[in-house]
Amino acid sequence: MQIAKVRGTIVSTQKDPSLQGTKFLFLQMIDDQGQLQPNYEVAADVVGAGVDEWVLVSRGSAARQFQGGEHRPLDALVVGIIDTVSVDNSLLYSKKDSYR
Amino acid sequence: MQIAKVRGTIVSTQKDPSLQGTKFLFLQMIDDQGQLQPNYEVAADVVGAGVDEWVLVSRGSAARQFQGGEHRPLDALVVGIIDTVSVDNSLLYSKKDSYR
Amino acid sequence: MQIAKVRGTIVSTQKDPSLQGTKFLFLQMIDDQGQLQPNYEVAADVVGAGVDEWVLVSRGSAARQFQGGEHRPLDALVVGIIDTVSVDNSLLYSKKDSYR
Amino acid sequence: MQIAKVRGTIVSTQKDPSLQGTKFLFLQMIDDQGQLQPNYEVAADVVGAGVDEWVLVSRGSAARQFQGGEHRPLDALVVGIIDTVSVDNSLLYSKKDSYR
Amino acid sequence: MQIAKVRGTIVSTQKDPSLQGTKFLFLQMIDDQGQLQPNYEVAADVVGAGVDEWVLVSRGSAARQFQGGEHRPLDALVVGIIDTVSVDNSLLYSKKDSYR
Fold first, then answer.
1. Would the pLDDT of E6 be above 90?
2. How far is CA A27 from CA A91, D73, D74, in A?
3. Would the CB atoms of B84 and A11 count as touching at under 8 Å?
4. Which domains does chain C have, with CATH numbers?
5. What's the distance, CA C4 to chain centroid?
6. CB-based contact (8 Å) between C73 and chain E?
């Protein structure tokens, strides 16, 4: 999985019928220093992530491994909202600190 | 998924029999600033996207997750026509504005 | 799919038994300007593509979606010989012109 | 597979239900000279890898090929703890030497 | 598939049970000029490839398409030992010449 920050949303009315009701999030990837990278991913969301939160995104066939997702043409999925990222025994990110 | 702009079409007469009738679109990828990138994707289309429209493209096995697509050798699929892309509460793209 | 040009062939005698009789083509990738890129792909061929032809190549599990290919360890497949590539209403490539 | 070094952990409370109890490791990729690369992977762990150990990481659908993992939205998995990496008949890495 | 050169081996004692007995090769990727690239792949081997040989490597789910490999967490597999690579009607590589 990669770490990403929720930056916005995509609206698409005319889409594959299986995607009706799917919410598309615009995610910006985070590098190993905690900085935003130029590359992004548009992902479906099953955990209710909100703007500015850091999330774990799974790509490839993993993006269809959720209740009811098996036959949707998805290749990216938010699978978790991140509480903390710890690297070398120090905190790279803490959700609590971000919202102080 | 990635965001891409429909730039053209590919015609192939001699192809795998399962691809008869499949329309191939030439898509140019869009970066996080809304600019065209040099990389492209040739994708099948199930939503009737037209030239200059911005679309969502799914890659990998996701490209076969549509009615009748299960056994076709496809690795990229247009899954939706984009109405709006909102990043940091501002519009990066709006289909309506593009056609004014 | 990506656009590639057939540049040559690979011969492998000692290989997985399921690949007996599989022809391996050496493909050089084509960029969005119609120029050869440094990256390449070795792909199986089910459409009878010949040297110098431009082809569509599918990668990943798509490469096993052909009659008899389901259980072969392939990750790239030539799925069509390209007749024309049209971008922004002009021809980037036409097979007919290439062989004049 | 790629070679990576365990650098830390990710905690996510709000996640897909199938991921309850899954431990997420923060892995930094190792290059062919044995040096840390800037790119990373967040992977599930089935072998009990610890911080500073070098591991083998599988990506894509391979990450769900373990007892009970078939339907979890995972795209990266630690599949082994590395004892030695030998390149050109010399040791690039030895776990034993790392802990002397 | 990509072309790679066998450079060494990886030993991992503590690994997923399904990988017992799997031999891991350290492969260095070969570019379109026949030169070694910095990127590498650790792959399982089903054809008995030896150090210095050039091989074809398949990645992704293709790496599990061999007798008994269906449920192992592998994402890279050596599928053939290369005899010759011919590009533009000249030999880029010949195994016979390499061992003279």
1. yes
2. 22, 17, 18
3. yes
4. 2-98 (2.40.50.220)
5. 6
6. yes
